[in-house]
Design a protein that fits this description.
Blueprint: E1 2-3, E2 14-22, E3 27-28, E4 32-34, E5 39-48, E6 52-66, E7 73-87, E8 99-100, E9 105-106, H1 109-119
């Protein structure tokens, strides 16, 4: 809540504020958010206009969560810009979605919440080129870029592995997997 009494009701009057407030609960999405009670830095400009008070500024928060590719924890600063018109209680503006001053006080929490949550990346990553996890064993590919597994046997041909012994050498065949040709003696 910010008090606009000092601003007065003269259009064009403005006031700049810097505040650090505790972050409210639930400011984020499942994989990324702002921890409750952490610092929410606000650089705010309140400007008196005919209809009410125009609040604009920047909110700086520290996001915590996990990378959606490799599941490693991540922590990064995040800045969002916001702007909202708060109309006077006696204003004749009929817009139901318009924010209204409560006496001489304006509540920035809903605006900051909407702005931060809507600006969050839908799928946060620790870095743009994060290779993620191995789909077979779950190893983190950034730790071992040469990570590989043997080629998997196609399940449709897996039954043949019981018929053909593993130690059979296919080098005499022209094409691997083709039936053996009988040797022709001269």
């Amino acid at each position: 809540m910010f008090d606009t009494r000092e601003l007065g009701r003269r259009p064009g009057a403005q006031r700049k504020l810097q505040r650090s407030v505790p972050a409210p609960a639930g400011l984020g999405i499942d994989v990324l958010g702002v921890p409750e009670g952490s610092d929410l830095e606000l650089a705010l400009r309140l400007e008196s206009v005919v209809e009410g008070v125009l609040a604009s500024g920047t909110a700086r928060v520290l996001l915590t969560g996990e990378c959606v590719r490799c599941l490693e924890p991540l922590e990064q600063p995040f800045d969002v810009d916001f702007q909202e018109l708060y109309v006077f209680p006696e204003s004749e503006i009929e817009d139901d979605e318009a924010s209204r001053l409560e006496g001489d006080l304006l509540d920035l929490e809903p605006v900051v919440r909407d702005t931060v949550v809507l600006a969050l990346p839908y799928q946060p990553v620790c870095r743009d080129d994060c290779p993620g996890l191995c789909p077979q064993c779950g190893a983190r590919l950034a730790d071992d870029p040469e990570h590989q597994h043997e080629a998997a046997i196609d399940p449709r041909w897996a039954a043949l592995a019981t018929v053909v012994p593993d130690d059979q050498n296919d080098t005499d065949n022209e094409v691997a997997g083709s039936p053996r040709r009988p040797e022709v003696k001269e």
